[in-house]
Amino acid sequence: QVQLVESGGGLVQAGDSLRLSCAASGRTFSNAAKGWFRQAPGKEREFVAAINWSGDSTYYADSVKGRFTISRDNAKNTVYLQMNSLKPEDTAIYYCAANRLISLLRLGSSSSWGQGTQVTVSS
Questions:
Q1: What is the four-CA torsion angle of 20, 25, 27, 32, rounded to 10 degrees?
Q2: What residues contact 62, with CB distance under 8 A and at least 6 apart?
């Protein structure tokens, strides 16, 4: 199984930026694609962004498009989420995911879930 550890969250003000990191370890076979999801209080987990193995294809939820950027460094087995112009509605626990691309995009399924990292944006 793939082990995922998210980090980089924090308490910031609207308009600020954060860079989340997700370190992956363990068996990565069939888990080439990576993604980010988030879960706000009282809501279900929702898709945020995804990236394929080579990094040449990225996907974003409409709510974050133009503000967030997903990237990866395969040499470090790490995926990043650069979050700019943060809004209070971005407040959530952010989780990274590893799976086949279609599973991330259509099913919201990951081989495993880490502890997540809390992002809180004050107004």
A1: 30
A2: none
Q: Residues near 93 by Cβ (< 8 Å), separated by ≥ 6?
A: 9, 38, 39, 40, 116, 117, 118, 119
The string of pLDDT tens digits covering residues 35-87 is 999 999 999 999 999 999 889 999 999 999 999 999 999 888 899 999 999 99
In one-letter notation, the amino acid at residue 4 is L
Instruction: Tell me the three state secondary structure of residue 74.
Output: helix
Task: Identify which of 27, 16, 11, 25 has the alpha carbon closest to the alpha carbon of residue 96.
Answer: 25
Q: Tell me, what amino acid is at 86?
A: L
Lookup: tokens for 71: 């990237």
